[in-house]
Amino acid sequence: KNEVEQSPQNLTAQEGEFITINCSYSVGISALHWLQQHPGGGIVSLFMLSSGKKKHGRLIATINIQEKHSSLHITASHPRDSAVYICAVSKTSYDKVIFGPGTSLSVIP
Amino acid sequence: EPEVTQTPSHQVTQMGQEVILRCVPISNHLYFYWYRQILGQKVEFLVSFYNNEISEKSEIFDDQFSVERPDGSNFTLKIRSTKLEDSAMYFCASGGSRYTFGSGTRLTVV
Fold first, then answer.
1. pLDDT tens digits for range A4-39
2. Is residue B43 classed as helix, strand or coil in its secondary structure?
3. Average pLDDT, chain B
4. I want to staple A23 with a disulfide (CB 3.0 to 4.6 A). Which of A70, A94, B61, B101 is the partner?
């Protein structure tokens, strides 16, 4: 069983839609990361969180430690949001990061 | 904002050749990592490095791989004798106050 699971695997949305990507994990963690990967391949860190909720622009990330679940929300989606969104966890602050399989998002104008 | 830089961005090499992938982590970070992503697959951990030694390595990180921090700023991954299946995107990361990934080196073995 994978330690980090994401749903959906693929997502197509109309521009302006509210988007939610879900992540569940099976290990004890100290931090959960949401990352973005564009077709060029580079990885950009969006959020690192260990509790509660964080917001940056149109992106919101939440985590429920008891349920071992996190969500990434995108409000007012835009075609430039099209990318692969990856959930990843680390067991301690300086431990390796365990990656989920990613969610491929396509936002259509 | 400080970045992790990786060079080259793309490298093509002949099977059996040695390659060195280079990374410059964020200067005050103490923990360094290499990951790889084979096309179409998820990112996998290779090795972590702290205090000038390997702190953890995965099953993938066999004897053909080595890491080094030669001069206090660079962090390198060497693949001694490349195989076709080493073709992948290789990411460096550094950790300190925050965790930061480099933009990756795409290695193509022909």
1. 999 999 999 999 999 999 999 998 888 999 999 988
2. coil
3. 93
4. A70
